Amino acid sequence: MNLDDQLKHLLRGTTNVVSQEELKKKLLLGRTLRVKLGVDPTAPDIHLGHTVVLTKLRLFQDMGHTVVFIMGDFTASIGDPSGRDTTRPPLSETEIENNIRTYQDQVFKVLDPSKTEVRANSDWLLKLFDKSNPSFLPKTLLRQHTVQQLMERDDFTERRKAGQPITLLELMYPLFQGYDSVAVKADVELGGNDQLFNLLMGRQMQKEAGQEPQVVLTLPLLEGLDGGRKMSKSYGNHVGVKDHANQMFAKIMSISDNGMWAYFELLTEENVAEMKALHPMEAKKKLAGLITARFHGAGEAQTARSEFERVFSKKEAPSDMESFQLLKPEMDAVELLVTAGLAPSKKEARRLLEQGGVQLGEKKVEVGEKIIVHSPLVLKVGKRRFKKLLPA
Predict the structure, then answer these.
(1) Which of 16, 160, 163, 372 has CA 20 to 30 A from 283's CA?
(2) Taking the model in full, what pTM does it have?
(3) Does one domain contain both 105 and 170?
(4) Pick from 203, 219, 235: which residue ends a domain?
(5) 335, burial (CB in 10 Å: exposed 0-12, middle 13-18, buried 19+)
(6) Is residue 232 one of the residues assigned to a domain?
(7) Number of separate domains in the chain
(8) 223-281 pLDDT, tens per residue?
(9) Is 171 helix (H, G, I), strand (E, B) or coil?
(10) Cross-strand bridge partners of residue 354
(11) SS3 of 48, please?
(12) Cα–Cα distance for residue pair 170/142, rounded to 1 Å
């Protein structure tokens, strides 16, 4: 690719670029750039929303650059305040270690391991607390930055207005994340829109350390399957990268016709204008096939498409339906949905029931209803989730 083509592909879908001219100069250096992404392993699994940035990182790799993937084992113990209206609950070391192991397995479904440098930020952040280190915390970071500067971020402003507490560790979080860029000498850093404050802090701290500041690229937060809210496991509107191929394909097919274009732009290299020229159903099958093939291979993606067409076009039940045995002879509908893994919370379960989206056999299930199963019955939630219920 020539420079203009590189910029066109790298900037596709981005919302903040600081700055395009600096990125152009770095690409013209003719050397391998160090492209950073820092992730706090706060949960064991990742979903398509997380892969928006990973997809862009893979593009940098395909252009010959190195991704520096920072596992925030130190920062995860503090909790990123970005987009939060309350303090995050702390994670134990065991939880962080377990999450790191599963994160890496999933991340390399997108990234090229041979062009990825994996680092843990505890390697350098813990040293900031060592008095013998010339970068000892009180002598450097704490003297160079003010409380007023850190309080400028919108999250803190809103929480202060609402009377919500802000811990001193949360105030220091941007300093720790910014110092990561100094430690790995990042040329470029990527993140979601909610990370802009932290990423710009990295630029500033590199300047203070005598380094050339990194270019910052931010990308939108992917909308969930329900539309309107960002993709999140807590909302139950996510597509997990570990989802079975059939489940992944079917979930993507549930995206609204208007919502799928953001998925095309952020998760594929397809020409969106050409996709819009297709029939919406065919375009969506194309999208579902591309994403499913990325994580499961082309063969599994084709099988998933055939299964989807069999189940949803011909109104047949899935051939690989999971079973769930009732925990007791009679279960409350809300409790059943949560326990069977068909809703992430009681609140979401009630919403599904109130909207009439839950069906047992041929009958709709209501809020407050008691479920009794004498022989195997199919429980259907929405258009794409099924469980075969077995008697207790």
Answers:
(1) 16
(2) 0.77
(3) yes
(4) 219
(5) middle
(6) no
(7) 3
(8) 998 887 889 877 778 999 999 999 899 899 989 999 999 999 999 999 999 999 999 99
(9) helix
(10) none
(11) helix
(12) 14
- Structural domain of 280: 243-313
pLDDT digits (tens, 9 = 90+) for 328-339: 888 999 999 999
Q: Residue 312 — φ and ψ, nearest 5°?
A: -95, -30
Whether residue 194 sits in one domain with residue 51: yes
Together in a domain, 363 and 250:
no
Cβ proximity of 104 and 118 under 8 Å: yes
Let me know whether 289 and 196 are in one domain.
no
Query: Measured between alpha carbons, how far is 11 from 28 in angstroms, rounded to an integer?
Result: 16
Question: What one-character DSSP code corresponds to residue 213?
Answer: P
The candidate with the shortest Cα–Cα distance to 6, out of 59, 85, 66, 68, is 59
- Distance CA(78)–CA(264), nearest Å, equals 35
What token pair was written down for 100? 């790191």
Q: Say how far apart CA 344 and CA 236 lie, in whole Å.
A: 5
How far apart are alpha carbons 374 and 377 in whole angstroms? 9
Q: Which of 105, 104, 40 is nearest to 74 (CA)?
A: 40
Place of tokens 């194309």: 286
Domain termination residue (choose one: 289, 313, 337): 313
Q: Tell me: do 160 and 255 sit in the same domain.
A: no
